[in-house]
Automatic annotation (TrEMBL):
One of its GO terms (biological process) is DNA integration. Keywords: DNA recombination, DNA-binding, Initiation factor, Protein biosynthesis. It comes from the Eukaryota. GO terms for molecular function: DNA binding; translation initiation factor activity. It comes from Microcaecilia unicolor. This is Translation initiation factor eIF-2B subunit beta isoform X1. Pfam families: IF-2B. Residues 301-355, 372-393, 402-421, 438-462 are annotated as: Disordered. InterPro entries: DNA_brk_join_enz (IPR011010), IF-2B-related (IPR000649), IF_2B-like_C (IPR042529), Integrase-like_cat_sf (IPR013762), Integrase_recombinase_N (IPR010998), NagB/RpiA_transferase-like (IPR037171). Residues 377-386 have a biased composition (Basic residues). Belongs to the eIF-2B alpha/beta/delta subunits family.
Amino acid sequence: MQQEPQPCERIDAFVLQLKRGGGRLNSEQIARKTVGLLRGICARSRWGNAEELMEIIRKEGRRMTAAQPSETTVGNMVRRVLKIIREEYSRLCGGSEENDQQESLHKLLTAGGLSEDFNKHFAPLKENVMEAINELLIELEGTLDNIAMQALEHIHSNEVIMTIGLSHTVQAFLEKAACRRKFHVIVAECAPFCQGHEMAVCLSKVGIETTVITDAAIFAVMSRVNKVIVGTKTILANGALRAVTGTHTLALAAKHHSTPVIVCAPMYKLSPQVCTSRHTRVSSVTMQIEQVPSAVSRSGISSRLGRVAPHKPLSFPCGRSGQRPGGLSQSSHSRSRGMGSQRSGVSVDSPPLGSSSFRSFRLKSQFQNSSLLQSPKRCKSGRSRRPLAEVALRSSLRVSSMATNRSSLAEDRGTRGAGSVGSTGLASASLVCGSATSVGGVSSPTSSAQDLAGTRARSSSRPGSILSYGLALERARLAKKGFSAPVISTMLRSRRRSTSLSYIRTWRIFEAWCTDAGIVPFRASLPQMLDFLQRGFDKGLSLSSLRVQTAALSCFRGRIRGKSLASIPEVARFLKGVSLLRPSVRPIFPSWDLNLVLSALTKPPFEPLLACSLKDLTLKTVFLVAIASARRVSELQAFSCRSPFLEFSKDRVVLRPVPSFLPKVVSRFHMSQSVFLPVLGSASGTRDQQNLRTLDVKRVLKRYIAVTDDFRRSDHLFLLFAGHRKGLSASKPTLSRWIKEMIASAYLLAGKTVPGALKAHSTRGQAASWAECSLVPPEEICKAATWSSLHSFSKHYRLDVQCRQEAVFASRVLTAGLLGSLP
């Protein structure tokens, strides 16, 4: 049987492969191979303590890094493994995890280095280090999937997307989106190696419509592009991206056309290195992208800490560095423009010619209004082998110039495209990370959640990003218990999306609170968790909100004393005290007048329908269906305009949600309920009948479907009426906004002040309460609103809509007394 090669032999082969340009290995394969080699060193080399092991790792790390200095992934993985060894050693030395406070930036900069002695021998050190490295390998395996699963947040149907060259990360990102969306991809060929051709072939094999263009055609085609998605080789510490040739040109064209740019990269591509030059002054061009030299300096590893030791920056002869393309701002540092070049300053350690296809440029952000958006910072642990739930988070990074909520932004406004709404191009790039821990292992401080310059929404609050964060936590925790991947996927669907979002938002707040208090979140004790709940109570949270927080903490923290958090007597007593100190009070009077709104719908600009604008017709249709059906916004969004889900008969209209829709309560009763809306009034009847006909849902729906048929791009009943997504299905937030806008418009037309805190969900309570006032049988009310019992209506929705009529008695008495009327 052939003997397995020794670690030194495997490293020699890997070094030779790196010297030849890495062969066909991508960055993920290089990262995994580097960690695998370092794991072999830890397992098979002879060492007695942490100092000896780190010296071996440093020696081999220098050798692998020197083989290909431009491949920063190798150095990043070496630094990560060194950090694992130091933290495992510190833990075995008895370092306290909960009392190890996060160091300030000033302390990190002024510290003289670690003074800890790593010469002590600990028998469990090898086992702990090997286990932590195995967890790192598991983390690396899921990086591509974690990035790809966020594709649907950024890519929408019928969009035109541009990319450049070949990037496996971008390829997986686009292929994941193609499973649910149909879009067109334009690939710049990336001369001189023309890797874009290979990218186009890969995308076309999975059914993505692809077009290959030359690099010279980028600017001409950019006006048709909705967004740009590119990959990167390295993200440097000064904000520079080392990417394929042509990326800078692509970014300039995107900036000129206000097209958003998304850069997809895993966390292991974050490098502590800085790319500088002595002879080329770095100057900002108009679009605030700073040009930096095209090669990464060769850097060594500190003999003690395993961090980057700065070498002399590389200088390259560039006779035209003072010139900027496109007539943009010029560098103040002029140089000779002759054919010759200066020899001075050329380093003997310059990277091989094979890496010249990569260029670097920096995304210069306006930090006054921008923020580094990432997961809450973690307190320093005494060991690097964190729970797998934490490990699964540090896997992906996206640099995006557009931090917007696509579910509602620009849906009903006439905009050119996705990039023209609140987008500032690359100048307002936001960093969205899967974790706050950098590759080097130093925790980054939690940044303030401010909007980037010109953007509308916070990237950190994007539902998709937050949900991915939470699913990674739960998936890792369940995997650690031994459940298979299919079983975990099924278990993760046990909660609705809204519930999962509430839970993970609570957990992220709890993580930030634990970090400030120096507590490990997954090891928080019961008193500490009650302190967190008390903090929420002091800030004004209601009992229901605290119950949600309790359930969220129980979900992610796990059981305490073998019980869920809510079932522990101390927690139950705490919540009981909250209910007495701050009892929940439900409003019993309607916040807006239904009669006033319905009266406005019978007058201009909502009547006559033939003269009604598309926006007013949409608002009227949505409101009438909502108030007449007493259904939730999610059900309104699920209605279809196609038969048999929409049927018109002589005396009624029947609406049914599409079969794929899941109601809030998934049961046979709730899934089989149709909406029946009667025909009202008559065009030839009395004046009251004619007024009533203006509120006839059948008449309004027929007109709405006829008007929207020309631009309809979705089978959903309610469509967006403006913007580049005109004709597509309106989202639930958009429908809610339309209902509130309809109520506000009615008050403004009547010359009255618009009530505060309008809610679209209030139409359910209004409709059911007025039906009860009109003596509709309780069982009919419950059936129409899909309540299984009258208890839900009486406890949560019943309103006193007769409060004004109850004042008639006192009014008549006082009037009669004043006028001296006799009975």
